[in-house]
Specification:
10% of the residues lie in helices and 37% in strands. By secondary structure, it is mainly β. It has five domains: 9-207, Sandwich (Jelly Rolls), CATH 2.60.120; 215-288, Immunoglobulins (Immunoglobulin-like); 292-570, Glycosidases (TIM Barrel); 574-672, Immunoglobulin-like, CATH 2.60.40.10; 688-955, Beta-galactosidase, Chain A, domain 5 (Distorted Sandwich), CATH 2.70.98. The strands form twelve sheets. The chain has a 16-stranded antiparallel β-sheet that branches. A hairpin with a 2-residue loop joins β46 (708-711) and β47 (714-722). α1 packs parallel to α2 (351-360), α3 (391-405) runs parallel beside α4 and α5 (463-470) packs parallel to α7 (501-510). The longest helix is centred in the middle third of the chain and has 15 residues, at 391-405. Bound molecules: 1-methylethyl 1-thio-beta-D-galactopyranoside (IPT). Residues 90, 191, 346, 418-419, 459-460, 489, 492, 520, 549, 552, 932 line the site of 1-methylethyl 1-thio-beta-D-galactopyranoside. It is an enzyme of class 3 (hydrolase). Keywords: Glycosidase, Hydrolase. Its EC number is 3.2.1.23.
């Protein structure tokens, strides 16, 4: 054996590698032994690929002074920065683009692990053994007991090596050299952190003589006959057993029997076994048939509607090294929030995740580990997917995905990859996949002509464009015109948002051709950080980075659902509950694709001024998909005096399911009964001036400025018009349709530095009037703002009138008043809750009586920004005040000013001050999705227009 080579040519070789076994299905044997090599490994990180020779792979090498690293893991997320740091870029390659060359500075982690075979390991001459790597970023070379067994690329794909002949009972030395950068990096330009390491399992599998090699479960469902046809093709002949179906057939032989089909809604799996001479392998069989028919994606004979999300693998401490509990948490959260589909953006996930999708029921678009997005910077010149030299690598990636994952019923589409432009390599992949697996469809977004795909897929198309596509007015190639449409990415969930998803869902449901979409994305990729809370791009000193664009998920890094997930859950709920309090009926519609409503229990409740006074169960027929029924509500309960009344009808799980407990809410609807009694304050008191003070009812004002200073002993600071909000990530983005970037327009106009000119303080018998003009320096536009104060002696009413002056060309961020309170903790309100609501993110907000605290009202978006406003508020109580609005208003309260919120870059920058700042908003601009996509629809924009709104203040006794 010869050592001490520093041959590193393989790193820049465009070929997929050498030495690995052909790809095959990923399965866990019932009886063959395996040994997990996860755990603590020795690690040495070098700055270049050739800094160290490979003598560390020799038996007897003393690595006693090396560091330790946990496998699976990324070395840059361990050792507190001692081994290097994470780098985040969206689509820019963090190295010069000169394929297939990579930088000399190529962090290289030598990993070493010595292991003994367990006592129960079969004798070394009985069968063989396979060493499996489930994921290594980005290129690895492997030695076992001093023998070089090969090298590979394809970070999120499995690679196996035959090693039986090299094993010994004890003292086996496994050496793995991992390079951060390789030719493979050019194919892995996904929008995520660059995180080198052995980040998925390493396993030694015993392979018994006569054991199973590869097999392909074909399990179709005929929706006309109700029968399933099973055929298991196996490299090694054997038998296929499915006891529940009385199946006992030879491999390769088809058998047709009546079955219950598999769907995301009814994930019926049959346990089976593949038995060869030397091994038994468990099978989990789901019968379903996926076809493209009548221009639609149909499963088991019915068109389906994707209510999906894009999922990157992420954990705030371990990056893309996920344990089973975390994967399960993702799936449970998805199921509990009514999602029915996942696109595994942008690589095949850990295989255990797909098992969970089979088990709990989620449609999956399994995406190949391929993205060359950075080539867009050079108009796609030299794009590897259009260069034959790279085609073997692309085909290798396609095969490693399909072969590994082909036995999962949840997978309905193979996706070629993401953002890789177009090219012959992609076509070759599609052709190979189509020929290898005729039971699924092929997806790829980057080719709008749909040359290689079975679906027209786009990302972030505007509502108008989606509607045009729905109406088949979008043109395109003949092939495309015949295809169904999905949005593989939409609703960019960065920071506060995404806005407008309810408007999208209406279109998805209205047009058959549109078969739903996938929100971008599931989770914020924040990295836990001692000083910053969660770090994002730039926090590790990267010379090139894309900031917090990596934090754009429906859940926060700790997996707490964001308001965006609550909104999505409501928007995609599988039961529509609409009613009319006047005629005493509720209309229930089943919007599932397969399930009837028998799993749900319905509950009505009746609210008087927001408080539930009575509730009961409602009997709803087990409607079939698409069916509706009008169900009679009981007589409304009696109540005293005038009050606003309303009905809430909820659909909950009737019994525990695999993913949710009995009583878990799936859908709800609210509809009004008696309308709200608006506050009226008779102006029976009048303002009285006494030196520097004006008093009016319970309130005191500064006589010179007309500024409110207290109400009934509660001090109030700085009450005045407010039009500014701390720009959201969406406000900072550019509307893909109009090119508008709100934060820039707003700042250019000066809306963040409005000046308040005092024009008059006028006292009449019953009114204190303060006239002002609110305008930014250097501009002619302004808002003539008049505050009118009246009182009945105990309550204080403020009416604000706003008249725009000059030519306003931009919507306002917000319109309302703000004020400071010395103390506030508990908050109660009658209005929309429990979470935040903005004009285009208010579907999940329901009318009720809510309580919270100032601290809990905050939504912890990783980059601080406007958040936490509660909408449709009739009245709110906090800091000793009761504030009632006419009309309804939105409010937020925080322990910092909006200016401090805006200045912060991480949550840890926000320091509570002595004052609680409260915004009472007449309106806010919609949120939109223009951090990547379209802005708020015109109907959700806050146009500068004459407005009048009022608040009644009283002290809270
Ligand atoms: C799109 C990418 O596919 C996705 O990975 C992510 O980067 C997303 O944008 C933004 O967060 S690509 C973009 C050009 C729309």
């Amino acid at each position: 054996m010869s050592f001490r080579t520093t041959d590193v040519d393989y790193i820049e070789d465009v070929s997929p590698g050498s030495g690995a076994l052909p790809p095959r299905a990923w399965y866990a044997s019932s009886d063959a032994t395996s040994l997990s090599l996860n755990g603590s490994w020795r690690l040495r990180v070098s700055p270049t690929a050739d800094a160290e020779d490979d003598s560390f792979a020799e038996e007897g090498y003393d690595a006693g002074d090396w560091a330790e690293v946990t496998v699976p893991g990324h070395w840059v997320l361990q050792g507190d920065g001692a081994f290097g740091k994470p780098v985040y870029t969206n689509h820019l390659y963090p190295f010069p683009v000169d394929p297939p060359h990579v930088p000399t500075e190529n962090p290289t982690g030598d990993h070493l692990r010595v292991f003994d075979l367990p006592d129960d390991w079969p004798a070394l001459d009985e069968g063989g053994a396979v060493l499996r790597f489930d994921g290594v970023e980005s290129c690895a070379r492997v030695w076992l007991n001093g023998t070089d067994i090969g090298e590979f690329k394809g970070s999120r794909l499995a690679h196996e090596f035959a090693v039986g002949h090299l094993l010994k009972p004890s003292g086996n030395v496994l050496a793995v050299r991992v390079h951060q950068w390789s030719a493979g990096s050019y194919l892995e330009d996904q929008d995520q952190w660059w995180l080198p390491g052995i980040f998925r399992d390493v396993t030694l599998l015993h392979r018994p003589a006569g054991g199973v090699l590869d097999f392909f479960v074909h399990a179709d469902y005929d929706h006309v006959t109700g029968e399933g046809t099973l055929r298991v093709d196996s490299d090694v002949d054997g038998r296929v057993l499915v006891p529940a179906l009385d199946i006992d057939v030879a491999t390769g032989a088809p058998v047709t029997v009546p079955v219950e089909p598999w769907s995301a809604e009814t994930p019926k799996l049959y346990d089976g076994e593949l038995v060869t001479e030397g091994e038994r392998v468990p099978l989990r069989i789901g019968f379903r048939t996926v076809v493209l028919e009548d221009g639609l994606i149909k499963v088991n004979g019915r068109p389906i509607l994707f209510k999906g999300v894009n999922r990157h693998e992420w954990h705030p401490r371990t990056g893309r090294a996920l344990d089973l509990a975390t994967m399960r948490e993702d799936v449970l959260l998805m199921k509990r929030h009514n999602l029915n589909a996942v696109r595994t953006s942008h690589y095949p996930p850990h295989p255990a995740f797909l098992d969970l999708c089979d088990e709990y029921g989620l449609w999956v678009i399994d995406e190949c580990d391929l993205e060359t997005h950075g080539f867009t910077e050079q108009d796609w010149r030299d794009n590897p997917v259009d260069d034959d030299r790279w085609t073997p690598a692309l085909l290798d990636r396609a095969a490693r995905m399909v072969e590994r994952d082909k036995n999962h019923p949840s997978i309905v589409f193979w996706s070629l990859g993401n953002e890789a432009g177009t090219g012959r390599g992609l076509t070759a992949m599609a052709e190979w996949i189509h020929s290898r697996d005729t039971s699924r469809l092929v997806h790829y977004e980057g080719d709008w002509n749909c040359r290689d795909t079975d679906v027209y897929s786009r990302m972030y198309a505007s509502h108008a464009e989606v509607e045009a596509i729905g109406k088949e007015l979008d043109g395109g190639t003949l092939k495309r015109r015949g295809l169904p449409f999905i949005q593989c990415e939409y609703g960019h969930a960065m920071g506060n948002g995404p806005g407008g998803i309810a408007d999208y869902q209406e279109l998805f449901e209205k047009y058959d051709r549109i078969q739903g979409g996938f929100i971008w994305e599931w989770i914020d990729h924040g990295i836990e950080h001692a000083e910053l809370g969660y770090a994002y791009g730039g926090d590790f000193g990267e010379e090139l980075h894309d900031g917090n664009f990596v934090c754009d998920g429906l859940i926060f890094p700790d997996r707490t659902p964001s308001p965006g997930l609550a909104e999505y859950k409501k928007v995609i709920e599988p039961v529509r509950i609409e009613g009319d309090g006047a005629d005493g009926t509720v209309r229930v519609t089943n919007r599932y694709d397969f399930a009837d409503l028998s799993a749900l229990a319905f509950v009505w409740s009746y609210q008087v001024d927001g408080a539930t006074v009575e509730s009961g169960s409602l009997s709803v027929p087990a409607l079939k998909p698409g069916e509706s029924a009008d169900v009679k509500l009981p007589e409304p309960p009696a109540h005293q005096g005038p009050a606003e009344t309303g009905w809430t009808v909820r659909a909950t799980l009737a019994a525990d399911t695999a993913w949710g407990e009995r009583g878990h809410e799936v859908a709800w609807g609210q509809f009004p009964g008696a309308v709200r009694v608006l506050p009226s304050v008779a102006a029976t008191d009048g303002p009285v001036r006494d030196g520097r003070t004006i008093t009016l009812g319970p309130a005191a004002f500064d006589a010179r400025t007309g500024t409110l200073t207290s109400i009934g002993g509660v001090s109030v600071e700085g009450l005045r018009l407010d039009v500014w909000r701390a720009p959201t990530d969406n406000d900072e983005g550019t509307d893909w349709v109009s090119g508008v970037q709100y934060s820039v327009l707003w700042r250019t106009l000066g809306l963040h530095r409005m000046r308040h000119r005092l024009d008059a303080v006028e006292l009449t018998d019953d009114t204190l009037t303060v006239r002002t003009r609110v305008a930014p320096a250097a501009r002619e536009v302004g808002l003539a703002t008049v505050y009118r104060w009246t009182s009945d002696g105990s309550r204080l009413k403020l009416t604000v009138s706003v008249a725009p002056e000059g030519e306003w060309k931009v919507p306002l961020p917000r319109l309302g008043v703000r004020l400071g309170l010395a103390e506030a903790e508990a908050v109660t309100w009658f209005g929309g809750g429990p979470g935040e609501a903005y004009p285009d993110t208010r579907a999940a907000s329901r009318i009720g009586l809510w309580t919270s605290t100032v601290d809990d009202l905050q939504t912890p978006y990783l980059r601080p920004q406007e958040n936490g406003a509660r909408g449709d508020v009739r009245w709110a109580r906090l800091g000793g005040l009761r504030i009632e609005g006419d009309p309804e208003f939105a409010f937020s309260a925080r322990r910092w000013t909006n200016e401090q919120l805006e200045a912060a870059s991480h949550l840890t920058d926000l320091k509570a001050g002595d004052t609680v700042w409260v915004n009472l908003d007449h309106g806010q601009n919609g949120v939109g999705s223009q951090s990547c996509g379209p802005g708020p629809l015109p109907r959700h924009q806050l146009t500068a227009a004459p407005a009048e709104f009022s608040f009644v203040f009283s002290t809270d006794k």
